[in-house]
């Protein structure tokens, strides 16, 4: 039963790659709060916290994840 609970929980935190990149840009470039990012992108604050936290744990910054020209 634990696997079902985990799957349901993570489904709520999944976002599109576009929204993920926008969240990281808003955090790293613009210095927005997680609440501001969540509101701007229409996603949960928990999702923002999770993905920004993962990026920071992986020592990523906006230069590492931004598209190259």
Overall radius of gyration: 13 Å
**Beta strands, count:** 0
Note the run of SSEs as H and E: HHHHH
Per DSSP, the total helix count is 5
Largest sheet: none
| Span of the ends, CA to CA | 46 Å
Contiguous runs where pLDDT drops below 50 for at least 5 residues: 1-9
What fraction of the residues are assigned to beta strands by DSSP? under 5%
- Label the overall shape: globular
Number of structurally distinct domains: 1
Helix content: over 70%
- Structural class category: mainly alpha
Mean pLDDT: 82
Describe the fold and architecture.
It contains 5 helices and no strands. The chain starts with a helix and ends with a helix. It has 69 residues and is mostly helical. The chain has one domain. It is globular.
């Amino acid at each position: 039963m634990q696997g079902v609970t985990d799957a349901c929980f993570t489904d709520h935190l999944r976002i599109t790659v576009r929204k993920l990149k926008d969240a990281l840009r808003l955090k790293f470039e613009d210095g927005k709060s997680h609440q501001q990012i969540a509101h701007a992108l229409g996603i949960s604050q928990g999702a923002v916290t999770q993905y920004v936290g993962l990026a920071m744990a992986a020592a990523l910054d906006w230069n590492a994840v931004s598209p190259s020209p």
